[in-house]
Design brief:
Blueprint: H1 2-19, H2 39-76
Helix pairs in contact: 1-2
Amino acid sequence: MIFVGSLIIGGISAGIMTLIPDEASKLCYLGYYAHCSFTPYSTLILFTMAIVGTILLIKLIKNLRRKYNKVVEINQY
């Protein structure tokens, strides 16, 4: 759960930080001085990481609900 949370929070926050204009020695691929000179690609990679984390979180929640429902059904009998 911690790993999935760090994927989501880390991907979104770092992805936004790469877009912020900043003093740099080199232009980014979008044509301005950004916090990261590899800006559009690094942003896409980080946002993809956050999307993968979200998908994993949804699957984890579904799996935990399925296990919980099985335990409840067993305890009812």
